[in-house]
Known about the structure:
Blueprint (H helix, E strand, L loop, with lengths): L4 H14 L5 E6 L2 E11 L13 H11 L8 H13 L2 H14 L5 E3 L5 E3 L1 H12 L9 E6 L8 H13 L11 H12 L4 H7 L6 H18 L10 E2 L2 E2 L1 H15 L11 H6 L1
Parallel strand pairs: 3-5
Antiparallel strand pairs: 1-2, 2-5, 3-4, 6-7
Helix pairs in contact: 4-5, 7-9, 9-10
Amino acid sequence: xxxxxxxxxxxxxxxKASNESQGKQKLYYMNQTQSFDVYRIDLDFLIYNxxxxxxxxxxxxxxxxxxxxxxxxxxxxxxxxxTFLWDSNRGRNRTTLKDLAAKGQQRPGIVSLDGxxxxxxxxxxxxxxxxxxxxxxxxxxxxxxxxxPHAYADxxxxxxxxxxxxxxxxxxxxxxxxLQKYLxxxxxxxxxxxxxxxxxxxxxxxPGNAKMLLEIMGLMDDYLEHINCPKLYLMLKDSDGTxxxxxxxxxxxxxxxxxxxxxxxxxxxxxxxxxx
Length: 276
């Protein structure tokens, strides 16, 4: 059962006060590099990050289809996110599950003071699976993580800045789906009012990249509106991956047209083009 925000915050505050550190790790947070203690946390005190980049397209589509409250987190949502995380890459998850069972958690995660997992959602999900027991054998599992000094909602912009560096920055260790960078750039700009120049820095990208991502995201939203499927972002995926390339090409063609260069190149086919 998902615990309330107040209870989660109380439990994590107690863990921090115990000073039972598992070690230390440095983070760049609140515009400075700081050394944080790593704590062993009961999984029951944690919830997944509903904005986790690995499943953002799935979450936004599900929220649109079900009219799910944007700020509510209950048992149904908790189970749904766990399923999305597992389905995001079953092969990789099975491999990591075996590794966790054999070696335990090797790299600490990051959580907010109210128990939202900022880094390590997939590992937390897999540890829950180990705890439930895939072969009927249940064994208590814990999540090793830094506990930030702020609750998620109390310092959302700074926490999302940190999250972005781990998910999409130069030091990101895991590849995310191609749609994620567009959805995340829009969230940073429109919901958190972070300017495009800083978004480029957070994502470890060259200047102008955020502007491009936001414009392509606009084309994607226009397309979904046109086919009467607003915010159903899974419509941008197909059996071969995503329709990203189509929108990137459209963006480039529109840039050429708007610059006054209306010549759109295509591969010349002698037989077909001569018939036309």
